Amino acid sequence: MRIFFSPDGSDPMLLDTQAALKAIHQELRAFLASSAKTADFPAATDGSPEPYSEFLCGLRLIKGAGEARLTLGSDRWLVLEGSVVELGECASKFLVEEEDGHTHLYTTPVSLIIEADSTWGSELAS
Fold first, then answer.
1. CA distance 48 to 98
2. CB 5 within 8 A of CB 112
3. N or C end of the chain, less CB within 10 A?
4. How far from 115 is each of 40, 97, 105, CA to CA, in Å?
């Protein structure tokens, strides 16, 4: 998984293969069913983030109350906080229906593009 970010106000983009996004969905569901209050999902940060400005370190989930909120932490992690029900709805966005497809996780103050890319990681195999 990579999370691309630019401070220009565009939505960050989380990118991985469809299969990997499904695996992340399963991990998110396991976290939501657990007694843990937080979970970190680190992202790859090597290579070039172009056309974005930088890679973010990962996605951190925090069980709290109320509507889901996505923010950028000072440690360069995306932080998604909300009730278990709200976080569960957010987790469902990781089930991108087709390879090379995408969806949007609309939250405030930041939204997230979640994209499945069949070529992700292929540069590592060469």
1. 25
2. no
3. C
4. 19, 10, 11
Report which secondary-structure segment, H or E, holds 87: helix 84-91
Q: How many domains does the chain have?
A: 1
Tokens 């400005």 belong to residue? 53
pLDDT at 60: 98
**Mean pLDDT of the residues in the chain:** 93
Residue 119 clears pLDDT 90, i.e. is over it: no
CATH code of residue 27: 3.30.1360
Structural domain including 116 reads 2-125
Beta-bridge partner residues of 60: 40, 79
What global pTM score does this model have? 0.90
Burial class from Cβ neighbours inside 10 Å (0-12, 13-18, 19+) for residue 112 reads buried
